[in-house]
């Protein structure tokens, strides 16, 4: 039996009637069966064509749609906007061969919103928050905020503009928030908000598209001068140690990093430059140091860094499993408990790097990795910094630091 390609037709945003829409009416006339969500199908009005009302989620309607297609019917699927822009076209492409689909797009909500601002949309990152749980949605948003590109958010009542503004403010993310409601309709509106700041709640049944235009902010980078951290505290991992530790951690863009005993967050901030799709949890038990991390994040707004106040290993329980762990403090008192907790949660193939200034901590780490039969290595870092004298300069030695790397076997 011959199978006709399923035609997916995008209707202009705000469409209320198909009167005068030549191509849409031609496609309807040639189709055997019309498929669409309830509100979109109502645009067709009185019609003798057979129809299939699609449900939410779409998966429940797919067996019926496929059965009609298998019977040789000419199927027309109607959608609002570009069907491949977080729309039904994308869903159908995941269940049918590409040559079995005929996509006829129109302007997307992203294009329409950018057109209102004369903003080129080729480099705008887009995130759909529809149907996603809060934790997953905010994690995706935090990753997008990291590179400083404009961001388009497609949202609903579950993620209001006030919720998003509050999250951005908490992350010290400075931007202009453009909120478009009902794009292409007679009820279209555009409001502008400065973030950080207040963004009043505006409940609406109309589709909401949000565009974030970020301000210029300090991006995370490798090799931040120690003087940046010395302004706030004397407790931080020095630059030479950070460099070697990050080399040992061998971070991949999607990794989750635990920074246990994070101090002022120096290593976390540099690690963020390597984790475009990941997340960092900076665990610190001392309240004044957690406050220092939060203050530093005002200068370096890095949404993927999550300060965690608490004592390891108890503070690790609710965190997602890490692909890499750095232990910068705490080994002097709870080495065995911290190492056991971190190694148990570490994913197979993950790296655990410990910074030790005490020989007892070094011994605890090397013995632990030996008992676990983990491949391991260690290095002694001895550095000296030039200090100016009245004539010339001399080098002052820093305390030696041992770095120990253990790699969890893939079979663990």
Summarize the structure.
By secondary structure, this protein is α/β, with parallel strands linked by helices. Helices cover 30% and strands 25% of the residues.
**How many domain modules?**
3
Please tally the helical runs, counting DSSP H or I stretches of 4 or more residues. 13
Structural class: alpha/beta
Low-confidence stretches: none
- Rounded to an integer in angstroms, the radius of gyration calculated over CA atoms is 28 Å
> What's the overall geometry?
elongated
Distance between the termini: 52 Å
Task: Describe the strand arrangement of the main beta sheet, using strand numbers.
Answer: 13-12-11-14-15-19-16
Name of the CATH architecture of the largest domain: 3-Layer(aba) Sandwich
Count of extended strands:
19
In CATH terms, what is the fold-level topology of the largest domain? Answer: Rossmann fold
Instruction: Specify the CATH class of the largest domain.
Output: Alpha Beta
Give the biggest beta sheet: 7 strands, mixed
């Amino acid at each position: 039996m011959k199978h006709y390609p399923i035609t997916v037709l995008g209707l202009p945003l705000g469409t209320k009637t198909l009167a005068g829409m030549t191509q849409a009416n031609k496609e309807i006339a040639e189709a055997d069966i019309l498929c669409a969500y309830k509100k979109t199908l109502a645009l067709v009005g009185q019609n003798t064509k057979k129809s299939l009302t699609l449900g939410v989620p779409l998966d429940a309607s797919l067996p019926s749609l496929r059965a009609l297609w298998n019977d040789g019917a000419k199927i027309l699927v109607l959608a609002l906007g570009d069907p491949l822009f977080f729309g039904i076209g994308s869903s159908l492409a995941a269940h049918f061969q590409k040559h079995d689909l005929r996509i006829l797009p129109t302007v997307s909500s992203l294009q329409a919103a950018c057109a209102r601002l004369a903003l080129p949309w080729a480099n705008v990152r887009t995130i759909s928050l529809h149907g996603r749980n809060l934790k997953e949605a905010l994690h995706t948003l935090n990753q997008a905020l990291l590179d400083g590109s404009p961001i388009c958010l497609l949202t609903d009542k579950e993620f209001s503009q006030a919720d998003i503004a509050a999250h951005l403010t908490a992350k010290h993310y400075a931007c202009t928030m453009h909120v478009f409601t009902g794009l292409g309709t007679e009820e279209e509106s555009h409001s502008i908000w400065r973030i950080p700041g207040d963004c009043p709640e505006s409940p609406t049944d109309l589709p909401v598209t949000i565009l974030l235009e970020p301000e210029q902010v300090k991006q995370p980078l490798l090799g931040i001068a120690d003087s940046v951290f010395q302004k706030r505290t004397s407790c931080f991992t020095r630059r030479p140690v950070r460099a070697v530790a990050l080399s040992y951690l061998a971070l991949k863009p999607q990794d989750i990093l635990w920074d246990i005993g994070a101090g002022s967050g120096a290593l976390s901030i540099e690690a963020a430059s390597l984790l475009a799709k990941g997340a960092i949890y900076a665990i610190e038990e001392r309240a004044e140091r957690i406050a220092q991390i939060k203050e530093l994040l005002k200068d370096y707004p890095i949404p993927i860094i999550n300060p965690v106040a608490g004592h390891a290993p108890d503070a690790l329980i609710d965190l997602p499993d890490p692909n890499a762990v750095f232990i910068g403090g705490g080994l002097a008192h709870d080495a065995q408990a911290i190492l056991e907790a971190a190694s148990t949660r570490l994913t197979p193939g993950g790296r655990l790097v410990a910074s030790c200034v005490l020989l007892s901590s070094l011994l605890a780490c090397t013995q632990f990795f030996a008992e676990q039969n983990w491949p391991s290595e260690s290095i002694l870092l001895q550095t000296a910094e030039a200090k100016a004298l009245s004539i010339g300069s001399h080098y002052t030695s820093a305390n030696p630091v041992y770095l120990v790397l253990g790699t969890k076997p893939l079979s663990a």
